[in-house]
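User: What would this chain look like folded?
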Amino acid sequence: MDNPYHRPSPPLLIVISGPSGVGKDTVVQELLKHTDNFHFVVTATSRPPRKNEVNGVDYWFVSEEEFEEMIAKNELLEYAWVHDNYKGVPKQQIRDALASGKDVIMR
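Assistant: Here's the prediction, encoded as structure tokens.
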């Protein structure tokens, strides 16, 4: 029976954080196994892809110049210079997922 007073919950933004090696990726993989209502945010990086990494799956691989353009256009939720390369979270990916009703997972 439909309840006219019950509104569906808005999508969530879930942040998985912790030091390197603590198991963030394992937590994300387990969450993604149980529902298709999650969107995992793919981080952008200016470093070149490693063997077997897939653009758009492991990272969004862009040049340093492209990354700096993203910074100038305020297209990133956050970014940092890490091990001589940029890493950051594109805002549009989050907007699109939330607008579609999906919960967003970031690490």
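Residues 45 and 87 are 4 Å apart (CA to CA). If you want, I can go into more detail on any region.
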